[in-house]
Design brief:
Blueprint lengths: L1 H9 L17 H133 L6 H22 L1
Helix pairs in contact: 2-3
Length: 189
């Protein structure tokens, strides 16, 4: 290897590490090849990676916009359904109120009809009772008259000491006694 140094020294050329070089500035050929490789990498990135990346971003943007639109549509649909539900609920409440009012009216009518029927039945029963009472009174009065007539005859016979055998006399005496009783009874009341 010393032979190589000797040969190089004899040819008066600079050795690779001899001479001046800059730590901050690389050699020209390094700069050129670095620049060429950077351009190739940028071209490949621009041609293949960037379109795919933009496609993915556009797809995500569409999904987000579609999701927002679907959410807005669902919200509008929910709002419409809520309004429809509230309208149906108010209709049902109004219908229920109307049914309650009709039921109250029917109940009042039924109560009024039942009261009228009860009043009619009560009046009929009272009238029937009064007729029965009047008939029984007349029967009792006629029985009392005949009984009182018989008692008055018996009393008159005891007082007079004789027997009243004559039917005409008997009925005249009974009638006189009963008429006197009838005239005395109202005055006692």
């Amino acid at each position: 290897m010393t032979n190589v140094y000797t040969l190089l020294a004899a040819s008066e050329e600079d050795l690779p590490m001899e001479g001046h070089f800059s730590v901050l500035l690389p050699a020209n050929y390094d700069l050129v090849w670095s620049f060429v490789s950077l351009i190739v990498i940028l071209f490949l990135f621009w041609k293949f990676v960037l379109p795919k990346f933009q496609e993915v971003l556009a797809e995500r943007e569409d999904r987000i916009k579609g999701g927002i639109q679907r959410a807005e549509a669902a919200q509008a649909e929910a709002k419409a359904a809520l309004e429809k539900y509230n309208a149906q609920l108010s209709e049902a409440r109004a219908e229920a109120q109307q049914i309650r009012e009709e039921a109250r009216d029917k109940g009042k009518k039924i109560v009024d009809e039942m009261k009228a029927e009860a009043t009619e039945e009560s009046n009929r029963i009272i009238e029937s009772g009064e007729k029965q009472l009047l008939a029984q009174r007349e029967q009792v009065v006629s029985e009392l008259r005949s009984e009182m007539g018989q008692n008055s005859i018996n009393l008159a016979e005891r007082l007079l000491g004789e027997q009243l055998s004559d039917n005409v006399k008997r009925s005249g005496t009974i009638d006189n006694f009963l008429s006197s009783l009838d005239s005395v009874a109202p005055a006692g009341k």
